[in-house]
Design a protein that fits this description.
The chain is an all-alpha fold. The chain is globular, with a radius of gyration of 18 Å. The model has no long low-confidence stretch (mean pLDDT 91).
Length: 118
C-alpha cells in the first residue's frame, strides 16, 4: 500500500473534504486565491480590514506564493521523475512551512486566550 493511500485512510472526514476541495480549487485555478481568503478569515475573524490593509496583505501573500512557486520551478531537476534532490528540497520546504504553521497556531491560541479573558 502506498504512503498516500495510508495517509488518506487516517484522515478525518473534514480532512478528506478539505483535500477534495483543494483538488477542485487547483483544477479551477483558484487554489492561491482561496488560500488568501482563508488567510484573511484567520487574521480577521471578527472585524473587516481596511481596503489598504487587504491590498497590502494580498500583495504580501501573493508575493510569497510567487516566490515559492518560482523557486520550485528553478530548483527542480529536469525530467519526469522526481530526483532524490528534488524530494529532499521539497521536504525541507515542507519542514520550514510546518514550523511556521506551528508558530501561527501558537499565536492564534494566544489571541483566543486573550479575547476570552477580557
Amino acid at each position: 500500500m502506498g504512503e498516500a493511500k495510508r495517509r488518506r485512510e487516517r484522515m478525518t472526514p473534514i480532512q478528506t473534504e478539505a483535500e477534495n476541495l483543494t483538488h477542485k480549487l487547483a483544477d479551477e485555478g483558484l487554489l492561491i486565491k482561496a488560500g488568501f481568503v482563508g488567510y484573511m478569515a484567520a487574521c480577521f475573524p471578527t472585524e473587516q480590514p481596511s481596503d489598504m490593509q487587504r491590498r497590502e496583505l494580498e500583495q504580501a501573500f501573493m508575493a510569497g506564493a510567487l516566490h515559492l512557486f518560482s523557486s520550485i520551478m528553478v530548483f527542480l531537476d529536469g525530467g519526469e521523475v522526481p530526483t532524490a534532490r528534488d524530494l529532499r528540497r521539497m521536504g525541507l520546504i515542507d519542514t520550514e512551512l510546518r514550523e511556521y504553521g506551528q508558530i501561527l497556531e501558537g499565536r492564534a491560541a494566544m489571541a483566543a486566550k486573550t479575547e476570552g479573558s477580557a
